[in-house]
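go over this chain:
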Amino acid sequence: MAAFQQRGEDLESNLNECSKLLEEAQERLQVIKARNEVDEAELTKIRAEVKKMSKDKRQFEKMLEEHKNQEKRLPWNVDTISKEGFSKSIVNMKPKEETQEEQVEKHKNFVEKYAKEIRHFGMLRRYDDSQKYLSDNPHLVCEETANCLVVICIEYEVDEKHALMEQVAHQSIVMQSILNLGRALKQDPRSCFRQFFSSMKSADRSARDALERELELLKERVQSCARMRMEEAREDLEEEEKLKRLGPGGLDPVEVYKSLPKDIQRSFDEKNVEMLHEAINKLHPDEGKYHLSRCIDSGLWVPESGGDEDDEEAD
């Protein structure tokens, strides 16, 4: 009975794997057909591959159907008559959808709890090591880990640690591929990550190229995000420095200096008060008053404070 059940499980596993490979081959076939210039040799090869896997899939389906029919005809014994009729109660209720705030909080708590384990997984290079680590830490097989690995990639790219970014990006693609496999098979990804690593070890060139293309696309997105983050940081720093420079009237002395006439700029460069007076006197009174007021409000010019006589003289 144990051998019979194991055969059924193997047939289901083989059928699922064959279906997945057939879908991938059909996708590659569509991509080749969509090209402007079609390589007839490659097209013929892919068509033959699709035909063969379609045949294999039909054979597995037939074998699995025969196996199920044999199971129905088995004589009753302690194994066949002592199975549970129901292993759980099913209530027809739609699961409550998490709000965005709940999802953010869930992601934050997960990353805080498993940050060390996620970073360790990101540094693994061999498929065998990754499979063993996930076997010991199956809770890491989730969207939160994949998202956290992308964030780590961006951090490394911002710090210009490009080699580390590429390493973690590869592990991020590995994790995302495992999640995609789980969705395709409609299984918990924690139950099929071994299947992913097994298939990658024996994968042909086209499958490895597909994974490499996904990796290159991810690296491009990471580099784009890193550039945006550095640009935002630069703008924030410039804004902070600008706020520190603001004069008593709230104006930026750098911007005010750039707007001044050349003669007034030269007087500030040479710190020559007499030259400043001469430059202002050459202007129309209203224009001279405008520029002098902006110099005072930006802190470029600090008039001496004194009594009424001094104020009148300053005016």
In short: Confidence is low (pLDDT under 50) at residues 76-93, 306-315. Residues 205-245 form the longest helix (41 residues). The radius of gyration is 35 Å. The CA atoms of residues 205 and 211 lie 10 Å apart.
